[in-house]
Amino acid sequence: MPAEKRSDRPPLSGRRILVTRSADQAPVMAEKLAALGAEPVLCPTIAIVPPGSYAELDAAIGQLAATDYLVLTSVNAVEAFFTRLAAAGSGPRALAGTTVVTVGPKTAEALAAHGAHADRIPADYQAEGVVALLGSEVAGKRVLYPRAALARDLIVNELTAAGATVIAPVAYASAVPAEAAAIAHAALAEGLDLLTFTAASTVRNFAALLTGKELAFARTVPVAVIGQQTAIAARDLGFTVAVEPAEATLEAMVAAIVAHFQGLPASQPPAPSC
Predict the structure, then answer these.
(1) How far apart are the first and last CA of the chain?
(2) Strand order through the sheet with 165-167
(3) For a disulfide at 270, which of 77, 142, 163, 191, Cβ 3.0-4.6 Å?
(4) Beta-sheet strand order (sheet of 170-175)
């Protein structure tokens, strides 16, 4: 039987790709990569945890009737918001009269799963896109922006400067999973062809898990990112960003990864022993 032609193989065949998304979100990305022949290596570097208190978010939910815009910039924000909405004995009908803005289609899908819909989605699926979409129309309006504990202040600062009253309670926080370090050490020891990061926090957390020698090696492995802020964080830590799709979606990232590897030779060697 003739040997299989390289062109007939899946485009990511044999490529070991590190996936650093949270444990609940990593499988979706891993499945997409595996379907293209890759060997996904799951190393969650972030876990979503409750904030220190829900008091501010609960108080803001109590004022939904007076809220003009609800801005949701992640699936995690959607889940936290609707969990607290349910705790208050309410549901999606409480959003009647409030314009709901999601940062992108995936966040809109999460919203739809709770029986609500996104009224507006920016062209640029990042905080900058939200500001560009709303900046000219929020003067005198009340904006509710449930956010992550470590979220940038861009939306708060820019919409406040545009004349809005922005309520920005912390809806969720993050932590590094206890097992992440051991997984990262083993993954590097066995060799990786690509590191993937979908948020700046995943980059910083991954780097903090490594020894100096491991970090030096990791910086020689190409990196794929979603979003400008993730790219900045990766470059600031000395990583080589080789894949940065124009659209900040998982689908665009996977397509860009395929394009990156087309025509490239064999896999990366493992890290030197530490």
Answers:
(1) 43
(2) 99-102, 69-72, 142-144, 165-167
(3) 191
(4) 47-49, 170-175, 147-148
- DSSP letters along 203-255, please? HHHHHHHS-HHHHHHHTTSEEEESSHHHHHHHHHTT-EEEE--SS-SHHHHHH
Tokens for 233? Answer: 């964080």
Helix axes 105-112, 75-87, angle to 10 degrees: 20
**Spatial strand order in the sheet of 39-42:** 39-42, 16-19, 194-197, 222-225, 240-243
Q: How many helices (H) and strands (E) does the chain have?
A: 11, 12
Q: Which domains does the chain have, with CATH numbers?
A: 6-46+176-261 (3.40.50.10090), 50-173 (3.40.50.10090)
Provide block-wise average pLDDT over 10 residues at a time, the chain (274 residues): 59 96 94 97 96 97 97 96 97 96 96 97 95 98 96 96 98 95 96 96 96 96 95 97 93 95 65 53
Tokens at residue 103, please? 């940062």
